[in-house]
Amino acid sequence: MKLQDLDIIVTSPPAPGWGGRYWILVKLTTDTGITGWGECYASSVGPDAMQAVIKDVFARHMQGENPENIELMFRRAYSSGFTQRPDLTVMGAFSGLEIACWDILGKDRDRPVHALLGGRMNDSIRTYTYLYPQPGHDISAFWNSPDMAAESAAEMLRRGYTAVKFDPAGPYTIRGGHMPAMSDITRSVAFCKAIRDAVGDRADLLFGTHGQFTTAGAIRLGKALEPYQPLWFEEPVPPDDVASMARVAAAVNIPVATGERLTTKAEFAALLQSGAASILQPALGRAGGIWEMKKVAALAEAYNAQMAPHLYAGPVEWAANLHLATSIPNLLLAETIETPFHSDLIRGSIKVENGYITLSDAPGLGIDVDEDLARAHPYTGSGLHLEMQEAPCDYVNGNAFQGGAPSPDQTL
Q: In b/e form, how buried is each residue of 60-95, taking b as 16+ CB within 10 angstroms?
């Protein structure tokens, strides 16, 4: 069996666009006629340029190869071109293609991917969700409203979720770390208080920051949040500043979580060695694929750290995350996004029930991709999957973060 053909679909979720502006799906076919699906979570170049990278990585390192030889193909992609270091764009391309190889292998052997990774360690996977606007909420006002966030948290609790994530401390800027405005700290405390009051001790609070603060600024903010006992303080400083993240972890009594922008075991190992994070959040469509993150999970286990696979993409990466989560002993949580488009794109083949997911024993990734639906929603914009703002932190008028992707002003 050899990898023969590649097809790429760039699909765009309908407004309000939870999961990003577009998802890059890859479909591999072997010379024996088996197809496998993967997803490339990469946003450092636009989708047209990224398709060219994916095609090059496939043709150069994978086409004609047995899909079993994942280690060999990884080393080719990682090392060729005299690199041998993490590369966000190349690894983003390889990751989606690697996921598709596992889908093929599972289908060829009539076994689920998690069975090929060491078997079922976790029958049930605890999941979490971002807090999104609910019916009746004004989308533009939601992101700065502690009361609406608390209402959303109460609804997620009603649905069975035991952990909710929110991010009221914006902005994300291209300028690197900044000192938070006092109004940002006040608003963040108000969010934590309102959500804690809404869920009590029945759900964990996951505080997202995504790399926008200086070390001192992150410590100031983290200290203010400590009374509300968040389960994690997510990426408090820029993701490549491991030493500063370790200083935040030592100074703030909230576990630090990070990893959605990192790739390969080289970057994750540095976090563990420095004590910068006790919760790792790889996005499998970017970080090197399923096998590479199985290695990272083993590294984390040796450091008594936990895994919480990240999702701000489509349901194919979600499926890959969940197969890894099913197979590892040090799982904390797995992120999920519930929208009709996410569900319809895989024809409802993975379901969240009372905040938990149990994967079936269906072969491969166990998903049924609606290829026609994916092609019916092509991405026609010019923006990247996610983007940072150029304007600096506003210390006069305050800051408003509009969620993970732009959305029209409307009431749900």
A: ebbbebebeebeebbebbbeeeeeeebbbbbbbbbb
